Amino acid sequence: SAASSLSYLDNGVVFVGSMHGDSQLVRLHAQPPTPADPNNYVELLETYTNLGPIIDFCVVDLDRQGQGQVVTCSGALSDGSLRIVRNGIGINEQATIELDGIKGVWSLRQTSMDVHDKYLVLSFVGETRLLAINQEDELDEAELPGFDANMQTLWCANMANDQLIQVTASGVRLIDCHSRHLVSEWKPSSGGAINVATGSPTQVAVSSGGGNISLLSVSEGSLQECSTLQLGEEVACMDMTPIGDDQERSHFLAVGTWSMELHLYAVGEGNSSLTQRVKEALSVEVIPRSVLLAAFEGVPYLLLGLGDGQLHHWHLDTTTGAISERKKLVLGTKPILLRPFRSGGSNSSSANGGTSGGGRSSSASSITSSVFAASDRPTVIYSTNRKLMFSNLNENEVNHMASFNSASFPDSLALAKENSLTIGTVDEIQKLHVRSVPLHEQPRRIVHQPETRTFGVLTIANFGLEDETNYVRIIGDAGMDIVASMQLNVNEMCQSITSTKLGDDPATYYVVGTSLCLPDEPEPTKGRIMVLLYDDNKLRLVAEKEVRGSVYQVLPFQQGRLLSSCNNVIQLHRWVQRSDGARELQPECKTTINVLALHLAARGDHILVGDLMRSMSLLLYKPEEGALELRASDYNSNWCMAIEMLNDDTYLASEICGNVFVVRKNADATTDEERQKLEVVGEYNLAENINRFRAGSLVMRLPDSELANIPTLLYGSTNGTIGVLASLPPALFEFLSRLQDALRKVIRGVGGLDHADFRAFRSERKVSESRGFVDGDLIESFLDLSAPHAEKVISLMGPSYTLEEVTRRVEELSRLH
Fold first, then answer.
1. pTM value?
2. Which of 10, 111, 256, 465 has a Cα at 20 to 30 A from 690?
3. Nearest to residue 351, comparing CAs of 197, 225, 207, 187?
4. E strands in 49-90
């Protein structure tokens, strides 16, 4: 990247800061650090992603999973690139096996001391199959003589003293790792079938129907029933993952029942007793399907997944067995299965996942550093600064999961779907992931065309030089490779692009607006609108129309029309067929307004125009008269950088001083003069120059979520910021405004900076208090407050609010991004 600043730190280490590309941390050497490159004395230590400046972007669903991704035009000059930004965690697929009907997956090591897993146990109705890493480091079918292959496995794991355990409906089987033969077996004394099982490296708990729970001790070569429990209600799920310093034995047994209750039992010394510590009704009409004891950053939790995709979690006091601070959220719509795992170098699950036990010790904070919630929308649960975080996995419909860390598949996960088993590694667990596609040209505009699965990108090569050249690049959205290109004429600059169908023509076209920038002209007086068709890896010019000026924006309009802004002229075009069969753009109507019409947005028959200097104007298209009529204007002087229509009556814009503002149409005004004014109803200082607003979201919305109907906009700024603006209903806005006012009194700004003063609308002409907006960053900082400070905020809000309610609502809002 081209350096914008250099900072020498120490010991030959230099920070290379770039405003137009990624920044880097390098070390300077007296001798070449790599013998293969004798002329290079610089060692790259770290790269820091920079999306700025974001000139344009689009929101797409490249993986066809209902979750948006942002593709940005980033960087400048030869550092130009496309950046694909997505929320959640990706799976880098390494192997896939077609298998139907998998009911459970576990990984096993050959001995307890082995670093790598060797076996994958796959459970099916009426049978169990094993896959093992062979001498060629490949996954192959295998057998363990001590395993019952003719029964469905309910649970299995590595145990202490180099032993394996398999639980089936008929009993519990203990297998020696070295001889691989059965050394002990236990069957229910009642003769009933086992339906649920869990354990730790030295314990196994099974439920054999009717609410009968048996707790077994596992020692070398033997299984011993130590205590029993009669719940009187059917058991739906159980877990006894060790939490604390003792990773060989669990001190708690968590149970979810068919009567929609959660039970927690303390396990006595020598497994001699099960003492109830918690019995809590779930207050839902859904059966729990998975329960897990987990520790995140040393903080113990109890997690419960329900059959409708809900997740409930509590803080767990390991001294008393009490649970507190119950919270719930919706992860999906189908049953949740919870499994712990680790990533990034040392996969190790609890016995619940089937890979821990006997010989390897881990701290409570590391044994379950992350939890995988398998469902129709798989989610990874992890902790940052002792706060639980939830990231979607970029996969659909995962039913079962197990960690699988082998020499051939290091730090991997085995994911069972409806009809396949996939082995892959997970991305680094973080909120956002950025992939760079270098262009080595300046990207200016981008649009996605779903019909051809391509992007149309306008670029400038050799920007600012004598041989500067503008291109229309077509890039495939799968491999992100350039599949077609068109070079523009000399001195012709690309300005705008859109993808649309025109008239009754079934084809989908790219429409490009350009300007002819001659050295002796202060403003372009010529340009053209080009209609391009991408087909069979070729980009063909179907029609073109010369115009008088620069085509700053082209936009699809109703009934297959095309809208364009050319200097200060807004023009509507029809797609017609000539007598010779060729098609062309034919002007239908136009209007002239303001100084330079740089931005357009349309909704129904209304058109919003963003001007270089004179803020926004609203036009109405009258099809009966074939005319565009000016209906209202904002008479404030704002230099617009981006605009968007929030709804039929409310419009958003960013301006050159880093502010955003909202205006509203006065449809109910009593006089014509008032109706011709766009009333300013919101002002806010973002301290960012925004180049583009786009409707969309980076997170997957659940249809039954409270947030499902809250529309969101994404924005991209010159600094490389991607932000979210959400349109809130009045009651929620009132609640958040009250919370914001209280937080301002409790949280002190950096350097004593007043938050209200910082967010005030500030331009060259005026300074005014922010209104109509709440600061999401400030609102979410409530979740990081200590208990005393949080209580103080609640008291300032008023007696009608509780800490639990406010925390729940803020956590839900944080899932908007």
1. 0.78
2. 465
3. 197
4. 56-60, 69-74, 81-87
